[in-house]
Design brief:
This protein has 85 residues and is α+β, with helices and mostly antiparallel strands. Strands 1-2-3 form a 3-stranded antiparallel sheet.
Length: 85
């Protein structure tokens, strides 16, 4: 299983970004569940990142890793500062 690095404060603890391999900056434009997305038949999350030039990148992680990341990020003090209108 591919590990998923979770940074609760990406400004203080930067993401695992290798600037030499960076091909552009984009926006997360699509996200969805894949019922049997892994080779083992487990659910996964598919995400599309659309770069400024229109190029799209598909990223995928397991539902278990995504849920763990969601729970960890939700516990961050940064989230508590957000205002939900």
């Amino acid at each position: 299983m591919t590990p998923l690095h979770i940074s609760l404060d990406a400004e203080q603890n930067p993401l695992g970004l290798d600037v030499d391999k960076l091909h552009g900056q984009g926006m997360l434009t699509d996200i969805g569940l894949l019922r049997h997305g892994t080779t083992g038949g487990q659910a996964s999350i598919g995400m599309v990142v659309t770069l400024k030039d229109g190029t799209q990148v598909l990223a995928e992680t397991t539902w278990k890793l995504f849920k763990t990341a969601y729970m960890a990020l939700s516990a961050s003090p940064i989230v508590a500062e957000e205002v939900w209108d």
